[in-house]
Amino acid sequence: MRVGLSVDPPLATIPGVLAEEGVDTYQTVLRDPGRFGNFGVPDPADRAALIEGLRGRTTWGVAHGSLLVNLASPEGRIRNSSVFSLLSDLKVAAEVGIAGVCFHVGYVKGHASADAALTLATRKLGEVIEKMPAGPRLFIENSCEGGELGQTVAEVGRLVRDVGAPPERLGLLIDTCHLHAAGFDLSGNDAGQRLADAFAEEGMLERVSAFHFNDCQLPCGAHRDRHAVPGAGTIGMGLISVATHPAFVALPGVIELSVEDGRQGLAFLREHGATERGPR
Ligand SMILES: [Zn+2]
User: Are the CB atoms for 217 and 226 separated by under 8 Å?
Assistant: First the structure.
Protein backbone atom coordinates (compact mmCIF):
# COMPACT_ATOMS: atom_id res chain seq x y z
CA MET A 1 0.00 0.00 0.00
CA ARG A 2 1.12 3.57 -0.66
CA VAL A 3 0.91 4.77 2.94
CA GLY A 4 1.42 8.41 3.81
CA LEU A 5 0.62 10.95 6.49
CA SER A 6 -1.89 13.48 7.74
CA VAL A 7 -0.61 17.03 7.47
CA ASP A 8 -2.48 19.97 8.97
CA PRO A 9 -2.79 23.25 7.07
CA PRO A 10 -1.30 25.52 5.90
CA LEU A 11 -1.27 23.54 2.65
CA ALA A 12 2.07 25.14 1.79
CA THR A 13 3.80 22.85 4.32
CA ILE A 14 2.60 19.62 2.66
CA PRO A 15 5.20 19.30 -0.15
CA GLY A 16 8.09 19.66 2.32
CA VAL A 17 6.68 17.12 4.78
CA LEU A 18 6.09 14.55 2.02
CA ALA A 19 9.64 14.96 0.72
CA GLU A 20 11.11 14.82 4.22
CA GLU A 21 9.23 11.65 5.20
CA GLY A 22 9.61 9.92 1.83
CA VAL A 23 5.87 9.50 1.18
CA ASP A 24 3.60 10.50 -1.70
CA THR A 25 0.14 10.30 -0.12
CA TYR A 26 -1.41 12.72 2.35
CA GLN A 27 -4.56 13.82 4.07
CA THR A 28 -5.39 17.36 5.08
CA VAL A 29 -8.43 19.51 5.85
CA LEU A 30 -9.80 22.37 3.76
CA ARG A 31 -11.73 24.09 6.55
CA ASP A 32 -11.94 24.31 10.31
CA PRO A 33 -13.31 20.79 10.90
CA GLY A 34 -15.28 21.79 13.99
CA ARG A 35 -17.34 24.69 12.60
CA PHE A 36 -19.94 24.99 9.87
CA GLY A 37 -19.50 27.95 7.54
CA ASN A 38 -16.41 28.82 5.56
CA PHE A 39 -13.91 29.12 8.39
CA GLY A 40 -10.27 28.23 7.86
CA VAL A 41 -10.61 27.68 4.11
CA PRO A 42 -7.12 27.98 2.59
CA ASP A 43 -6.57 31.32 0.86
CA PRO A 44 -5.54 31.59 -2.80
CA ALA A 45 -1.83 32.01 -1.99
CA ASP A 46 -1.84 28.86 0.15
CA ARG A 47 -3.67 26.87 -2.54
CA ALA A 48 -1.15 28.06 -5.13
CA ALA A 49 1.76 27.04 -2.88
CA LEU A 50 0.44 23.45 -2.70
CA ILE A 51 -0.04 23.22 -6.46
CA GLU A 52 3.42 24.70 -7.07
CA GLY A 53 5.13 22.56 -4.43
CA LEU A 54 3.76 19.29 -5.82
CA ARG A 55 4.25 20.14 -9.48
CA GLY A 56 5.92 17.29 -11.37
CA ARG A 57 5.46 14.83 -8.49
CA THR A 58 3.04 11.90 -8.42
CA THR A 59 1.11 12.45 -5.23
CA TRP A 60 -2.33 11.51 -3.98
CA GLY A 61 -4.22 13.59 -1.48
CA VAL A 62 -7.53 13.37 0.34
CA ALA A 63 -9.30 16.06 2.34
CA HIS A 64 -11.20 15.06 5.46
CA GLY A 65 -14.61 16.71 5.45
CA SER A 66 -16.05 18.58 8.41
CA LEU A 67 -16.52 16.53 11.56
CA LEU A 68 -19.99 18.07 11.87
CA VAL A 69 -21.31 16.44 8.70
CA ASN A 70 -24.53 14.56 9.42
CA LEU A 71 -26.49 13.79 6.27
CA ALA A 72 -29.16 12.04 8.35
CA SER A 73 -29.72 14.85 10.85
CA PRO A 74 -33.39 15.36 11.73
CA GLU A 75 -32.65 19.10 11.43
CA GLY A 76 -32.86 20.38 7.88
CA ARG A 77 -30.40 23.16 8.66
CA ILE A 78 -27.70 20.62 9.65
CA ARG A 79 -28.39 18.38 6.67
CA ASN A 80 -28.11 21.33 4.30
CA SER A 81 -24.98 22.70 5.99
CA SER A 82 -23.48 19.22 5.61
CA VAL A 83 -24.18 19.20 1.88
CA PHE A 84 -22.86 22.76 1.49
CA SER A 85 -19.71 22.01 3.45
CA LEU A 86 -18.90 18.89 1.38
CA LEU A 87 -19.52 20.77 -1.87
CA SER A 88 -17.24 23.61 -0.73
CA ASP A 89 -14.46 21.14 0.10
CA LEU A 90 -14.91 19.40 -3.26
CA LYS A 91 -14.53 22.72 -5.08
CA VAL A 92 -11.26 23.54 -3.33
CA ALA A 93 -10.08 19.94 -3.85
CA ALA A 94 -10.79 20.27 -7.58
CA GLU A 95 -8.78 23.47 -7.72
CA VAL A 96 -5.68 22.15 -5.93
CA GLY A 97 -5.65 18.60 -7.36
CA ILE A 98 -6.75 16.71 -4.24
CA ALA A 99 -8.19 13.34 -5.29
CA GLY A 100 -11.19 13.23 -3.00
CA VAL A 101 -13.07 14.30 0.10
CA CYS A 102 -13.91 11.71 2.78
CA PHE A 103 -16.66 12.06 5.34
CA HIS A 104 -18.68 10.19 7.94
CA VAL A 105 -22.30 9.72 6.88
CA GLY A 106 -24.01 10.74 10.13
CA TYR A 107 -26.06 9.43 13.02
CA VAL A 108 -29.17 7.36 13.57
CA LYS A 109 -30.26 9.74 16.39
CA GLY A 110 -33.70 11.25 15.84
CA HIS A 111 -34.93 8.39 13.65
CA ALA A 112 -37.13 5.43 14.48
CA SER A 113 -34.68 3.05 12.78
CA ALA A 114 -31.27 2.89 11.14
CA ASP A 115 -33.14 2.18 7.92
CA ALA A 116 -34.95 5.54 8.06
CA ALA A 117 -31.68 7.37 8.81
CA LEU A 118 -29.90 5.64 5.92
CA THR A 119 -32.73 6.49 3.54
CA LEU A 120 -32.48 10.18 4.43
CA ALA A 121 -28.67 10.13 4.19
CA THR A 122 -28.92 8.48 0.78
CA ARG A 123 -31.13 11.30 -0.49
CA LYS A 124 -28.79 14.04 0.76
CA LEU A 125 -25.76 12.20 -0.62
CA GLY A 126 -27.53 12.14 -3.97
CA GLU A 127 -27.78 15.94 -3.78
CA VAL A 128 -24.03 16.26 -3.23
CA ILE A 129 -23.32 13.90 -6.12
CA GLU A 130 -25.62 15.86 -8.40
CA LYS A 131 -23.92 19.19 -7.68
CA MET A 132 -20.29 18.16 -7.19
CA PRO A 133 -17.61 19.54 -9.54
CA ALA A 134 -15.71 17.32 -11.97
CA GLY A 135 -12.45 15.87 -10.72
CA PRO A 136 -12.33 14.87 -7.08
CA ARG A 137 -14.33 11.94 -5.72
CA LEU A 138 -16.48 11.64 -2.66
CA PHE A 139 -15.40 8.89 -0.26
CA ILE A 140 -17.78 7.40 2.29
CA GLU A 141 -15.70 6.55 5.35
CA ASN A 142 -16.77 3.73 7.67
CA SER A 143 -17.34 4.70 11.28
CA CYS A 144 -17.44 2.98 14.68
CA GLU A 145 -18.90 5.05 17.52
CA GLY A 146 -22.31 4.28 19.01
CA GLY A 147 -25.15 5.65 16.89
CA GLU A 148 -22.96 6.34 13.85
CA LEU A 149 -24.14 5.14 10.45
CA GLY A 150 -21.90 3.15 8.11
CA GLN A 151 -20.12 0.87 10.57
CA THR A 152 -20.28 -2.38 8.63
CA VAL A 153 -19.29 -3.54 5.17
CA ALA A 154 -22.98 -4.26 4.47
CA GLU A 155 -24.10 -0.78 5.53
CA VAL A 156 -21.53 1.19 3.49
CA GLY A 157 -22.31 -1.19 0.62
CA ARG A 158 -26.01 -0.41 0.89
CA LEU A 159 -25.29 3.34 0.79
CA VAL A 160 -23.19 3.06 -2.36
CA ARG A 161 -25.80 0.88 -4.06
CA ASP A 162 -28.75 3.10 -3.06
CA VAL A 163 -27.06 6.36 -4.09
CA GLY A 164 -26.31 4.76 -7.45
CA ALA A 165 -23.41 7.09 -8.36
CA PRO A 166 -20.62 5.83 -10.63
CA PRO A 167 -17.23 4.85 -9.14
CA GLU A 168 -15.54 7.98 -10.50
CA ARG A 169 -17.87 10.06 -8.28
CA LEU A 170 -18.31 7.86 -5.21
CA GLY A 171 -15.89 5.47 -3.54
CA LEU A 172 -15.22 3.92 -0.16
CA LEU A 173 -12.43 4.88 2.18
CA ILE A 174 -11.84 2.25 4.83
CA ASP A 175 -10.52 3.22 8.24
CA THR A 176 -8.93 0.06 9.63
CA CYS A 177 -9.21 1.29 13.24
CA HIS A 178 -12.91 2.07 12.83
CA LEU A 179 -13.69 -1.26 11.16
CA HIS A 180 -11.89 -3.19 13.91
CA ALA A 181 -13.57 -1.10 16.62
CA ALA A 182 -16.93 -1.72 14.92
CA GLY A 183 -16.45 -5.48 15.30
CA PHE A 184 -14.65 -6.68 12.15
CA ASP A 185 -11.55 -8.35 13.60
CA LEU A 186 -8.60 -7.12 11.53
CA SER A 187 -5.92 -8.78 13.65
CA GLY A 188 -4.25 -11.91 12.31
CA ASN A 189 -2.40 -12.82 9.16
CA ASP A 190 -5.55 -13.58 7.20
CA ALA A 191 -7.08 -10.13 7.78
CA GLY A 192 -6.35 -8.91 4.23
CA GLN A 193 -8.06 -11.94 2.67
CA ARG A 194 -11.07 -11.76 5.00
CA LEU A 195 -11.46 -8.06 4.26
CA ALA A 196 -11.25 -8.58 0.50
CA ASP A 197 -13.75 -11.45 0.74
CA ALA A 198 -16.21 -9.37 2.78
CA PHE A 199 -16.21 -6.54 0.22
CA ALA A 200 -16.32 -8.95 -2.72
CA GLU A 201 -19.37 -10.67 -1.22
CA GLU A 202 -21.07 -7.29 -1.03
CA GLY A 203 -20.08 -6.56 -4.65
CA MET A 204 -18.07 -3.58 -3.37
CA LEU A 205 -14.42 -4.62 -3.65
CA GLU A 206 -13.73 -2.33 -6.62
CA ARG A 207 -15.25 0.63 -4.71
CA VAL A 208 -12.62 0.39 -1.99
CA SER A 209 -10.43 3.27 -3.06
CA ALA A 210 -8.27 4.28 -0.12
CA PHE A 211 -7.54 3.66 3.54
CA HIS A 212 -7.12 5.46 6.79
CA PHE A 213 -4.38 3.12 7.91
CA ASN A 214 -4.63 3.33 11.68
CA ASP A 215 -4.06 0.75 14.37
CA CYS A 216 -6.56 0.68 17.23
CA GLN A 217 -5.98 1.32 20.94
CA LEU A 218 -9.00 -0.65 22.15
CA PRO A 219 -10.19 -4.24 21.56
CA CYS A 220 -12.17 -5.28 18.50
CA GLY A 221 -15.81 -4.30 18.97
CA ALA A 222 -15.13 -1.52 21.51
CA HIS A 223 -17.03 1.01 19.34
CA ARG A 224 -14.67 3.80 20.34
CA ASP A 225 -12.55 5.77 17.90
CA ARG A 226 -9.05 5.64 19.37
CA HIS A 227 -6.27 5.49 16.78
CA ALA A 228 -2.95 3.84 17.60
CA VAL A 229 0.41 3.89 15.82
CA PRO A 230 0.47 1.04 13.27
CA GLY A 231 2.08 -1.92 14.99
CA ALA A 232 1.34 -0.60 18.49
CA GLY A 233 -2.37 -1.43 18.74
CA THR A 234 -4.79 -4.34 18.78
CA ILE A 235 -4.61 -4.87 14.98
CA GLY A 236 -0.82 -5.13 14.78
CA MET A 237 0.34 -7.56 12.09
CA GLY A 238 -3.17 -7.59 10.62
CA LEU A 239 -2.26 -4.23 9.05
CA ILE A 240 0.65 -5.86 7.23
CA SER A 241 -1.74 -8.50 5.91
CA VAL A 242 -4.11 -5.80 4.58
CA ALA A 243 -1.38 -3.56 3.13
CA THR A 244 0.24 -6.41 1.20
CA HIS A 245 -2.96 -8.08 -0.05
CA PRO A 246 -3.20 -7.97 -3.87
CA ALA A 247 -6.60 -6.20 -3.69
CA PHE A 248 -5.21 -3.35 -1.60
CA VAL A 249 -1.46 -3.22 -2.30
CA ALA A 250 -1.71 -0.53 -5.01
CA LEU A 251 -4.15 1.69 -3.09
CA PRO A 252 -3.28 4.87 -1.20
CA GLY A 253 -3.59 5.08 2.57
CA VAL A 254 -2.82 7.64 5.26
CA ILE A 255 -2.00 7.28 8.92
CA GLU A 256 -4.22 9.67 10.90
CA LEU A 257 -1.89 10.73 13.66
CA SER A 258 0.65 13.50 14.19
CA VAL A 259 3.56 13.45 11.74
CA GLU A 260 5.82 12.21 14.57
CA ASP A 261 3.56 9.24 15.42
CA GLY A 262 2.93 8.61 11.74
CA ARG A 263 6.67 8.34 11.18
CA GLN A 264 6.83 5.50 13.73
CA GLY A 265 3.95 3.76 11.96
CA LEU A 266 5.72 4.11 8.62
CA ALA A 267 8.85 2.56 10.14
CA PHE A 268 6.78 -0.47 11.24
CA LEU A 269 5.18 -0.84 7.80
CA ARG A 270 8.51 -0.45 6.00
CA GLU A 271 10.20 -2.94 8.31
CA HIS A 272 7.63 -5.53 7.15
CA GLY A 273 7.77 -4.57 3.47
CA ALA A 274 4.20 -3.25 3.59
CA THR A 275 4.95 0.18 2.14
CA GLU A 276 7.83 1.68 0.22
CA ARG A 277 9.83 4.76 0.89
CA GLY A 278 9.20 7.18 -1.95
CA PRO A 279 11.73 9.51 -3.57
CA ARG A 280 12.96 12.27 -1.28
ZN1 LIG B 1 -10.96 7.52 13.65
Answer: yes
